[in-house]
Every structure is written in structure tokens, then in C-alpha cells.
Amino acid sequence: MDDTERRQLATAIRDECVRELLDAYEQAGMSGLCAEGRWEVAVGRVRSLSDADLLERAAAITQERA
To answer: Does 5 or 40 have the greater pLDDT score?
Structure first.
């Protein structure tokens, strides 16, 4: 894997984490949680993502962008 591919993979992983964070924050808000509770749920979701799942999702995103 060259530097360009590593950067693309890192970008895809970061984008997927942000997407999960925002989704969890929104869902928690719809459940009636306050801002602090929403943040805790969102961070918990990102922390629960497995390395394998992130790599798989990032690879798919990278393929789509190519």
C-alpha cells in the first residue's frame, strides 16, 4: 500500500467515524436525551466500532471513490 492509498484509507475511516458519530447523536436526540447524553451515546457508538468493521467499510468507500 503506497502513501496515497494509506491517506485514502485514513480519510475513509475518519469519514465513517464522523458519520457514525453524527447518526448516533441524532438518534439519541430523537430518543429525548439531553446534549450531554447524546454526546455520550455518540462517543460510545464510535468506540464500539470494531477495527475489522471500520477497515471493511473504509475499503468499500475507497473503492467507490476510485
So the answer is: 40
